[in-house]
Amino acid sequence: MEYFELMLNDCNKEQLVFTEDMYNKFITYKDLIKSWNEKINLTAITDDEEIIKKHFIDSIKVFRFDYFKEAKDIIDIGTGGGFPGIPIKIVNENINMVLLDSLNKRVNFLNEVIKQLRLSNIQTIHGRAEDFSQDKNYREKFDIATSRAVANLTVLSELCLPYVKVNGYFVALKGPSVDIEVSEAKNAIGTLGGRLHDIIKVEIENSDLKHNLVIVKKIKETPKQFPRKAGIISKRPLK
Ligand code: SAM
Q1: Tens of pLDDT along 29-87?
Q2: Domain boundaries, the chain
Q3: Which of 10, 81, 98, 221 is least enclosed, having the fewest CB within 10 Å?
Q4: How far is residue 102's CA from residue 35's CA, in Å, rounded to a whole number?
Q5: Residues 163-211: pLDDT tens digits?
Q6: What is the CA(102)–ligand 1 centre distance, in A?
Q7: Residue 203 to residue 207: CA distance in whole angstroms
Q8: Cα separation of 160 and 49, whole Å?
Q9: Which fold is adopted by the domain 4-235?
Q10: 20 CA distance to ligand 1 middle (Å)
Q11: CA 230 to ligand 1: nearest atom
């Protein structure tokens, strides 16, 4: 129960219930990360406490934005080793979670995590974000699209906003300084049907980690021509 208190305190701060069953799932997940990381590149972070703080607690901090407690359908774009999607799912099993990543090895890892943790109502997709959002089963079907460490906010908005229902939210987990990135992305966000809703500063207790949740509300449908094709989005970012 070495890290139980650490995670319990953090969940309490976000008004989340934290059980022994959830803790056991996190420990199994941590052990899977460490063993698979020897075969495929999942993360540069390999120390137990660092995994708990920098991946698990960092992901759970999205609940600082209250809407996560009532959202039903969430997609995590460029989820990699499952962040923030898997920790969100562990602490709120009522959520229907979709984890999307373009790297098949990581998707195979996620499928193994889902099996070993016996998670239900969770689906993985191997593919590019810009391809799946043209599929009517995924376009504008989610209460929230999340993403951490995938691209700058302008590019990310084009990848994520098409998945979000009108009145839903796109939540980007960003580093300590976001002001320039946010002001550069403002026009693109508007073009894609969004409006900046809030920026929530988050600190991880007992560490020097600071990040920002950039929250964008979807206020109208994303025009059909977005997202553009892979490559074009980053080569010619929306102005
Ligand atoms: N979100 C995870 C995290 O915070 O640890 C992973 C971050 S990793 C730096 C970026 C991930 O995004 C990679 O796993 C990569 O395969 C995925 N990715 C990048 N561009 C993508 C795209 N257009 N569609 C889907 N996945 C993408």
Answers
A1: 999 999 999 999 999 999 999 999 999 999 999 999 999 999 999 999 999 999 999 99
A2: 4-235
A3: 221
A4: 21
A5: 999 999 999 999 999 999 999 999 999 999 999 999 999 998 888 889 9
A6: 7
A7: 8
A8: 31
A9: Rossmann fold (3.40.50)
A10: 30
A11: 23
What distance in Å separates the CA atoms of residue 28 and residue 151, rounded to the nearest whole number?
29
In angstroms, the first-to-last Cα distance of the chain is 50
Sign of torsion over alpha carbons 88, 89, 95, 100: positive
Residues 218/169, Cβ–Cβ less than 8 Å: yes
Beta bridge partners of 171: 146, 215
Burial of 45 (0-12, 13-18, 19+ CB in 10 A): middle
State if residue 128 touches ligand 1 by the CB under 6 angstroms criterion. Answer: yes
Give the burial string for 106-134 (b: 16+ CB within 10 Å, else e): bbebbeebbeebebeebebbbebbbebbe
Tell whether ligand 1 has an atom less than 6 A from the beta carbon of residue 83.
yes
What does residue 68 show for φ and ψ, rounded to 5 degrees?
Answer: -60, -25
Distances (CA, A) of 182 to 194, 195, 197, 227, 236: 13, 11, 11, 19, 17
C-alpha–C-alpha distance, residues 70 and 66, integer Å? 8
